[in-house]
Amino acid sequence: MSFTPGIFAGSKMYNNLIVRRLMKTLANYDLSGRNTFRMKVRCALYVEIEAEEELPALDFSALPQPVMVMGGGSNLLFTKDFPGTVLHYGVSTALDQVQGSFGPGAISGAGPGPSSVPLNALEATVGGLGPKGKNTPRPECGWTWSTEGYSVLVTIAAGTVFDDFCAWAASEGLWGPENLSLIPGECGASAVQNIGAYGVEAKDIIADIRAWDRREGRFVYIDPANCAYGYRTSKFKTEWKGRFIITAVTYRLSRTPQPRLDYGGLRKALNLKGLDLVHGKSGLGAISGGGPGPGSVPQNTPGAIVGGPGPGDKKTPRPESGWTWSKEVESLTPKIIRQTIIDIRNAKLPDPAVTGSAGSFFCNPVISKEHFERIVAMAKAENGPDYSVPHFEVGDQIKVPAAWMIEQCGFKGKRLGGAQVYQNQPLVIVNASGEATPEEIIGLETQIIRTIESKYGITLHPEVEHV
Fold it and tell me: Where are the extended beta strands (E) located within 241-377?
């Protein structure tokens, strides 16, 4: 029996060789089942990473180039066959097995989650070294309690479906990701794309990121403060593109109620469910105009009231007075908000299991107030003096829904070959026939961009990454 020089059992070189032989690789791979647009394209090589230790063993220089790391394929438009390697990090966290332990021993019960632990429990850790080498959870371990504002730090493997994480957090009574419910994709992509919906973005809850640094050949921890997060963007999409392979994301969640309700009709939808929501902004911090917010008041405050007598001379809030703590407010939970958002999204967006799409196709443009006033004048001239243009204030600028402009220009439901602007939400372009080509998707996209630019002087930019 002979041995290859320099390779022997137990050595790093030998172990890397075994890992490479076990690694799942597929040549000339059909990607139509790996992208939610269902574009019928192929890549030269597909690599599925099934364990974190496979990354140091992978010889990236030997792979067909370029190498693209792909998550769930939910924010991509393949414009043609990909000539290089598509790499997917497939390690996920079994959320139904996530457990924690506190103090001198384990919490009673088979698999406690954060909701079963008292708020005054001692800070504790699960599973050994984690982000930055501290005693915080590794991807397979679960969660730990932090003394920082009674927050819960949850480390999730990058290949975990993000909505599964949202569902788990809501079931545990943890606040933070509920507004992001039903966004397709995986947890690793949430840190790349800075996904967002209903007034919340991933950056608001990301505490730390673990990744393989291809340039330095080692695992690193990345502070989200260094990621230059912006509207659907980060350094992972710009100057760091292709350098890091995210293997886990640590999210900072909270047991303290922090509802974010003032975006996209969420408050109205909750009101329709019979929840008597208050008029002030909810969550931690001051109500606009000064004074404490509900998040700063202990939950056992007996019948706290702000603003004096309200409707019917009852001690309930007047519209201008802010908020009150009531049984209805106490009943507002992450699970209720999550389900409400799921209902809203299902009513507006196509089911990816039925109709191919990449979700929101365009970014909502942010413009100056002066530019917005010109658009308002145009809209009133077309729709009447009482017409109101939907918008959101972003600092001293205005965000205008791209969907509104697309609909105003007559594109709602418009079709080009197998591609179509979705009838219920014009921000979405769908593969209506199931056989749409990249050229048809791009053709419809180009028509929309040119028409919006001509009418409103705004250039729409795709949120969907073109490959």
Answer: 244-254, 356-360, 366-368
